[in-house]
User: What shape does this take?
Amino acid sequence: MFEQLHTERSSRQARSGADGERGARTAATKVLAVLEAFGAYDGAVSPAELARQTDLLRSTTHRMVGFLRPAGLVDVLGGGFLLTSRVAECRRPCRIPSAFLSR
Assistant: This one.
């Protein structure tokens, strides 16, 4: 059993770019992966399901959600996580100052 768990974890780490491999995922890309994973669900999502959808370890998924909670983007509901209405506010169009457009 230990061998199976170790093999599954090693396989997941290789796919997620753990241990400094080329193509390693940054915290930012992991957070974005977690946000994107919510798109497949209407309600609360369990930590295990988010981990499966993002191909991240469950502990990493918790840590990424921990970055999103203080920003008000994710909340806890029962045993799962839920996107808040704050996410919709992030979709509003923004104006780019002309100083940046002329560069």
User: Anything to note?
Assistant: The beta strands are 74-77, 80-83.
